[in-house]
Amino acid sequence: MATGQIFSKTTQALFYNYKQLPIQRMLDFDFLCGRETPSVAGIINPGSDGFQKLFFGQEEIAIPVHPTIEAACNAHPTADVFINFASFRSAAASSMSALKQPTLRVVAIIAEGVPESDAKQLISYARANNKVIIGPATVGGVQAGAFKIGDTAGTIDNIIQCKLYRPGSVGFVSKSV
Predict the structure, then answer these.
(1) What band does 170 get if pLDDT is binned at 50, 70 and 90?
(2) 147-148 and 141-143 as β-strands: parallel, antiparallel, unpaired?
(3) What predicted TM-score, i.e. pTM, was given to this entire model?
(4) CB-based contacts of 13: which residues, under 8 Å, 6+ apart?
(5) What is the mean predicted confidence (pLDDT) over 118-147?
(6) CATH number for the domain whose boundaries are 13-162
(7) pLDDT for position 173
(8) Using the 8-state DSSP alphabet, how is residue 73 labeled?
(9) Could you give the dihedral angle defined by the CA atoms of residues 47, 44, 62 and 112, in that order, rounded to the nearest 10 degrees?
(10) Would you tell me how many other CB atoms lie within 10 Å of the CB of residue 71?
């Protein structure tokens, strides 16, 4: 990866708290970008185990579902991005757990309403451990032609119209604390 670049065409992510639409939109983006493998390596859904069927282009794929962050990190050691769709009630705790995993280097927190003191603690820990926090209250991010987080950039139609599936400029949107 180039200096200062957060994502690449080989970036893999773990998705916390199963949400079908944002995951499917990530997979649609991946397919349009010509990725060889989906960017979503695994899903963490506390207490659940198994597989979730989704689409990568026209092909139905099974993405592993893990009951804990630790189990997902052990099963997918190349996944270095954690996309947290937890509610504001549990987003800080699950994000801190992710930050403590040696394989994860970027944590994106989608939840709004995370207490400022919790956000400051997360940011402090991330800085001290050379990790990146995106959010809380982010809509995500996109690196054109490479990787996107959740619902960022919208539907396939918008991605095609804006030509975000092609490598090029970096677009990023995030709300600061």
Answers:
(1) low
(2) antiparallel
(3) 0.92
(4) 26, 39, 40, 41, 79, 81, 82, 83, 147, 149
(5) 92
(6) 3.40.50.720
(7) 53
(8) H
(9) 120
(10) 15
